[in-house]
Amino acid sequence: MQHLLLVDDDQDLTAMMGEYLSQEGFGVDAVHDGSQGVRSALEGDYALVVLDAMLPRIDGEEALRRIRARSLIPVLMLTARGDDADRITGLELGADDYVAKPCTPRELTARVRSILRRTQPHLPVLQPQSVVRAGALVMWPEQRRAQWAGTELVLTPTEFNLLEVLASEAGQIVSKEVLSRRALGRSLDRFDRSIDVHLCAVRHKLGLQASGQSRIRAVRGMGYQLVRELH
Predict the structure, then answer these.
(1) 10 Å Cβ neighbour count for 148?
(2) DSSP per-residue string spanning 191-212
């Protein structure tokens, strides 16, 4: 059984969500302030954290910042509907995805399952591990590991997913819709900037080419491309 941590000060909401998630086969714990959320996320054995943006003691952004300083556990942010600033800030701080409140338990569960499918390591039995290579980039999807020129890359689960898709199609332009389906496990929402924010972080971690250009190229109106000539 996979265990989830719900961090939200709305106790009625967490009770309802927790009951639904339990019926769907998850173990669920709930805490109701940001400080306890950070402690529980770092000390507990959870597969994923659902973190509200608005929390007492410390808010969701600060809680996420503290979690990311020590852990790459998948985090799903709950944000106010229409509040793009909260969403973008959360993604920049390392959230894997977000759901706008109010949301239904079914919608939340679907998003949780989508993240978990994409972030859990799968170790094949008696089979060679698959490796994705693109120049100096080497990725081991089963282990959720990536190296650039022999140095480990520290990537959030969603950053890993996006880079894996681009690496598997190195030199080709991959549309944002394809990236969303393959890396986030969902269709691309209108005006959704999640992919742009995540790939901005990946670009920074990969550094620049000798020419000074980014190793991940944005092609206006088409998508993103991991350039083949990596150094």
Answers:
(1) 18
(2) T--HHHHHHHHHHHHH-B-TTS
CA angle centred on 116, ends 99 and 196, rounded to 5°: 55
Identify the weakest region by mean pLDDT among 2-6, 124-128, 157-161, 200-204.
Answer: 124-128
pLDDT of residue 129: 61
> What whole-number distance in Å separates Cα of residue 93 and Cα of residue 96?
9
> CA 200, CA 216: separation in Å to the nearest integer?
9
| 3-state DSSP assignment of residue 225 | strand
Percentage with pLDDT > 90 across the chain = 67
Q: Which two tokens stand for residue 76?
A: 């799903």
Residue in the structure block whose two tokens are 């569960």: 109
Relative to beta strand 151-152, strand 145-148 is: antiparallel
The model's pLDDT over 162-198, given as tens digits with 9 standing for 90+, comes to 999 999 999 999 999 999 999 888 888 777 888 999 9
Decide the pairing of beta strands 173-174 and 145-148.
unpaired
d(CA 110, CA 99): 11
Distance set, CA 117 to CA 26, 93, 110 (Å) = 14, 22, 11
- Burial class of residue 11, CB neighbours in 10 A (0-12, 13-18, 19+): exposed
The b/e string for 81-96 (b: 16+ C-beta within 10 A; e otherwise) is eeeeebbbbbbebbbb
Domains of the chain: 3-119 (3.40.50.2300), 132-226 (1.10.10.10)
> With a threshold of 0.85, does the pTM exceed it?
no
